[in-house]
Design a protein that fits this description.
Layout (H helix, E strand, L loop, with lengths): L7 H4 L1 H8 L4 H41 L4 H7 L2 H6 L1 H14 L4 H34 L10 H25 L3 H10 L1 H7 L1 H16 L7 E4 L4 E8 L3 E6 L4 E5 L2 H4 L3 E2 L1 H6 L2 E9 L9 H7 L6 H17 L15 H14 L11 E4 L7 E9 L4 H18 L18
Antiparallel strand pairs: 1-2, 1-5, 2-3, 3-4, 6-8, 7-8
Helix pairs in contact: 2-3, 3-4, 3-6, 4-7, 6-7, 7-8
């Protein structure tokens, strides 16, 4: 009590005044305690306010002189403010004997409350530091696409477990080590309670090690209705912003237990696949007569092809003495085959098609609707809006070119339905 000699004259000041005025001793003691509690609370609040201002000014001035953003994030996540609370808490411990000089039982209970507040304050400081680390890690290019949130959450989980154990030990009087020994007996129940958390943590590690998913990847997961960019990977869930701007939440462990499509390979390739077909009406497909071939030679993209191929066909038919009075005899060009070659030449020369990736125009298996002619290529622009524009421009040209070859696009209402 020697440390409080300077405060002893004030211990019973209100008490003495009340006694002198004729108040009862019990009432005087309680009012004296409440008055001291009010005064010291105000003092602690003032000290806390001043310290916060000093620390914030020091950190802000220091941040202006440094190039790193770490100190900026310290301020953003209120680390200096949380640290400033420590000194008022220590002062409060020192003032307890003064405030509760006449109530030792109250003093012990308030001391317990302050100790619990101290534990919570430490947790809050650690939390702000971890949030600072998380925010700072997102400014480092090599860490932007890593599931840092998962590791931060695991760290906070352990911090809270230790904090709760310490508080429980304080309230019950059980030793800290014995508390964890007791928890060991209930490990099966704990595993059941934290099943999703454990699965999420393991999944986060596997996702990071195997580089399965990164923040910013476009993924498609039909089971959960997800089709968009990954915007967050944390301990419990992966958040995907769909193309319609809705948010889909997927359990983190689903990334290693379920099937999904990651479009990162397309992004890394520099091209985006175009795979679409137009269906040709079967009755419009025919052999080309010599005069029709000559007419098609005026289409510059296939002039050289027709000259070369027609010469080869004529040579073959003459050498093999084919009777060309009937068009079916020997080898012939078809309007469908010439049109396919035209489209292939058109796609290969298109400025928005990536030339170092697969380019193919092929005929698919016939269907009840007709003969599909598929264009398979990759656009050089991966952005969705521009990709759709490129594909639309290509098929606008394809559909408009079909009549020049005597072909027709199949229409559903043109199919004869037999009753």
């Amino acid at each position: 009590m020697n440390d409080y000699n300077i405060l002893k004259p004030f211990n019973h000041y209100i008490y003495d005044v009340l006694i002198d005025s004729g108040s009862s001793e019990i009432l005087a003691r309680y009012l004296n305690m409440l008055a001291l509690l009010l005064v010291f609370t105000i003092i602690l609040l003032v000290v806390d306010f001043i310290l916060r201002k000093i620390l914030l000014n020091l950190i802000n001035n220091f941040a202006l002189k440094t190039k790193t953003e770490f100190d900026d994030f310290l301020v953003k996540h209120k680390t200096p403010r949380n640290l400033a609370h420590i000194i008022p808490l220590l002062i409060a411990f020192e003032l307890l004997p003064v405030v509760f000089v006449d109530f030792p039982a109250f003093e012990s209970k308030m001391e317990l409350v302050l100790r619990i507040l101290g534990v919570l304050m430490v947790v809050w400081i650690i939390r702000s530091l971890l949030q600072t680390i998380r925010s700072f890690s997102k400014t480092i290019n090599s860490l932007k696409d890593k599931p840092i949130d998962s590791y931060i959450q695991v760290a906070m989980l352990f911090v809270w477990i230790i904090a709760i154990a310490v508080i429980f030990a304080m309230l019950t009087g059980i030793e800290f080590i014995k508390f964890f020994t007791t928890l060991g007996a209930a490990s099966a129940i704990l595993l059941l309670i934290f099943k999703d958390t454990i699965l999420g943590f393991v999944a986060s590690i596997q996702v990071a090690i195997n580089d399965t998913v990164r923040i910013g990847d476009w993924i498609t997961m039909e089971k959960y209705g997800a089709d968009g960019d990954v915007i967050e990977i944390n301990l419990a869930a992966v958040k995907v912003q769909n193309w319609d701007k809705t948010i889909t939440t997927i359990p983190t462990y689903a990334l290693i237990s379920d099937s999904f499509k990651n479009w990162r390979g397309m992004t890394d390739s520099g091209g985006r696949r175009i795979k679409r077909s137009v269906i040709i009406k079967p009755s419009s497909i025919k052999f080309l007569k010599p005069e029709e071939v000559e007419q098609l030679k005026s289409i510059q993209r296939i002039t050289d092809f027709l000259n070369t191929r027609q010469a080869e066909i004529d040579t073959f038919n003459i050498e093999n003495k084919r009777d060309k009075s009937i068009l079916l005899n020997g080898r012939n060009l078809t309007n469908f085959g010439v049109f396919r070659q035209y489209i292939a030449t058109y796609i290969e020369g298109h400025p928005d098609i990536k030339k170092d990736m697969t380019i193919m125009t092929r005929q698919l298996e016939p269907t009840v609707y007709g003969f599909p002619l598929e264009i398979y290529a990759f656009s050089s622009d991966q952005r969705w809006v521009y990709y759709e524009k490129i594909m639309a421009d290509i098929f606008d040209h394809v559909i408009a070119a079909i009549p020049f070859f005597g072909l027709e696009v199949m229409e559903i209402n043109s199919i004869e339905v037999k009753k």
